[in-house]
Design goal:
It contains 13 helices and 10 strands. The chain is an alpha/beta fold and 380 residues long. Helix 10 runs parallel beside helix 11.
């Protein structure tokens, strides 16, 4: 049976929307991690058969197949093609899935899965703005017949989760505070140093605020009157890129590569698109069942902190040990550069497994449309 291995995983620092990375062209961000991954692994650039890059807002500087333009911007061979994909926030985790599936099928040996998003340069929703400006509906008649004209947004989905699971603002803020504490401790201990490829003079993630307090969070106004949500319990608007190189056994042997992890399970599940953010729960159950593993077998989990109720509900439903979940903080503290986050989380997961000596790692993310990817890997 074919195997797929992760042989390289690199990310930029995650920048804030007005920070030092906000002025860096998205293609240059993507080029940086692609070039750095090739250099660190020592793989011949021409041996890379495809570049699959996640990017959500494919407009303006992020248009025109940024996977291809990023690869060429890096000065890498014209013979390697690139394709850009959008599975909303899980875009570059899906890139990892597609890359691994190409290797597992036996049709490819070396594929770069990556992601990029500069939310300081291309605002979230910029690709939907055309329809709004032109007075065109974002959803067709079939959708309206099925779900009506009710509000469909990540913000409402997060509030609906609070109502369903009974989370109050204090629950969310305590979780957010711990995310910042963990991220600050990890940064100060140098845990991210080996996975980050500095760029534009930035060496560390910009959004971490380990000095924040519950008192400071309490001063913020809710996103909407009567809601539990504030900006403090949501992921940060961010800038960043990541890349993960997937290789076959043949490529490992031919190029003398060092496997970091083996791909164990690739799962994808849809759930209620109105709640939107709940799919990581059934997707994780599916992945565990198909892999024959239990939640207790997972040594490290990276679940995207789009909003605090997402990981809180996942923890309550799956019964995982909270100490193993986002041990170095999550997107509330470190940021969420949309199309890049999947590759950033996978990079964090691989490096944390090696740092701690854990065996199995699990990554999952909520995604627009009520979807979720789950990837299980085994440290090699």
């Amino acid at each position: 049976m074919a195997e797929a291995f992760i042989v390289g995983a690199v990310r930029t620092p995650v920048g804030t929307k007005k920070g030092a990375l906000a002025g860096v062209h998205p293609a240059e961000l993507g080029a940086h991690v692609l070039k750095e991954t090739v250099a660190r692994t020592g793989v011949p650039p021409a041996a890379v058969e495809d570049v699959i890059m996640g990017c959500v807002s494919q407009v303006g500087p992020q248009a025109l197949d940024i996977a291809r333009t990023a690869w060429l911007s890096a000065g890498l061979p014209e013979s390697t093609p690139g394709v850009t994909i959008d599975r909303q926030c899980g875009s570059s985790q899906q890139a990892v899935h597609f890359a691994a599936q190409g290797v597992l099928s036996g049709t490819q040996d070396l594929v770069l899965a990556s992601g990029v998003e500069n939310m300081g340069m291309v605002p979230m929703g910029a690709n939907a703005k055309f329809a709004i400006d032109e007075g065109l509906p974002l959803f067709g008649d079939g959708w309206t017949d099925r779900y009506g004209t009710q509000e469909i947004s990540q913000f409402r989905g997060a509030q609906l989760m609070c109502e369903k699971w009974g989370y109050k603002r204090d629950d969310l803020e305590r979780f957010a505070l711990e995310s910042h504490r963990r991220a600050g401790a990890a940064r100060d201990a140098g845990r991210f140093d080996t996975e980050i490829a500095p760029i534009a003079g930035v060496e560390q993630d910009e959004g971490v605020r380990p000095d924040t307090t519950l008192e400071k969070m309490a001063e913020l106004q809710p996103i909407r009157e009567g809601w539990e949500l504030t900006a403090a319990v949501a992921s940060q608007v961010s800038v960043g890129a990541g890349a993960v190189l997937i290789a076959s056994e043949r490529a490992v042997a031919e190029h003398g590569l060092t496997p970091l992890a083996r791909v164990v399970q690739l799962s994808l599940v849809g759930d209620d698109p109105v709640y939107m953010l709940t799919a990581p729960i059934p997707a994780t159950r599916t992945a565990l069942e198909k892999s024959g593993l239990g939640i207790g077998d997972i040594d490290v989990t990276e679940i995207n902190e789009a909003f605090a109720p997402v990981p809180l509900a996942w923890l309550d439903e799956l019964g995982a040990d909270p100490e193993t979940v986002n041990p170095n903080g999550g997107a509330i503290a470190l940021g969420h550069p949309l199309g890049a986050t999947g590759s950033v989380l996978m990079t964090k997961l691989v490096h944390e497994l090696h740092r701690t000596g854990g065996r199995y790692g699990l990554q999952t993310m909520c995604e627009g449309g009520g979807q979720a990817n789950v990837t299980i890997i085994e440290r090699v």
